């Protein structure tokens, strides 16, 4: 049973993408999977996604309380249904780990990112997230870290071992069609792409401002991500329209594949990440990338020219100009694509996760991923 996912399929968010890919494969491996999702994100008729059962449980549509309320309801439901393993995603929902253990459940917690560092949260929300981190890491039967950085944090801060299991990528088939990008007024190979939630930690404003400062000719900037009513989202929308930036909204499937396939480069200016799925996806298409020099991005050990100082808009503008003027290298593109596909394989992620489940349920397991 899975807790901590807002919804699936096609719900924007790194955790949701992770869950969609992981549990589809675990079902193929023979797991009976039930995902507890939140009512605002899944229509009432949605009861399954492939072989995965979908259970809608009520949640308020209010930032800061949505995850907490849903997690409490979810753990009560799990206490009644008695799954072999309750897998909780993210440190916010992990606040219910002690209650789940009190019910006698076997609990696995995946630590995706230090959410309390996100600028949008106030004091109470940060306290709840830090409490969730402490409870999830110290009270669970097993912990999964998606990066070496997070595994080290779990060890140094909470004195616990964890299983290092990163995110994965789906090997894509690059799209030859161009109707979607043409409909957005784009030319193949002549636009910068950013994919992610419109939120403070993704720092879209830095990118929009750098795009406006740079000497980028007829290149365009495309932001893929759904706008909402938050002040930051409205600020990004205003700045983007003033800078002639293309706001493509939330995209999935064929449309997103076209945007990745024909981009001139991918930009990730984030201030906070776990292990960035969108960056891995971009590299799986062979795209040249620019990423902020925060530790989770540096962990990928990309060439030095792929990084810029986080928050430094002039440096990002200069990096955009350099990317635009650098001829595309087919051999380097193929090497990037192969490296990320080999290193971040969802099938291996699923197999390693199943080993964790077997370890907490007392089944024999041989595993060298624990740290």
Largest sheet: 6 strands, parallel
> What is the correct CATH architecture of the largest domain?
3-Layer(aba) Sandwich
Order of helices and strands: EHEEEHEHEHEHEHEHEHEHEHEHEHHH
Q: Which stretches are poorly predicted, pLDDT < 50 over at least 5 residues?
A: 365-371
Q: Which value, in Å, is the CA radius of gyration?
A: 20 Å
Helix content: 40-55%
Kindly estimate the percentage of residues that lie in beta strands according to DSSP: 5-15%
DSSP helical segment count? 14
- Given the C-alpha coordinates, what overall shape results? globular
Summarize model confidence as the mean pLDDT.
93
What is the CATH first-level class name of the largest domain? Alpha Beta
> What topology, given as strand order, has the largest sheet?
11-10-9-12-13-14
Our count of domains comes out at 2
In CATH terms, the superfamily of the largest domain is: Glycogen Phosphorylase B
Number of strands: 14
End-to-end distance: 25 Å
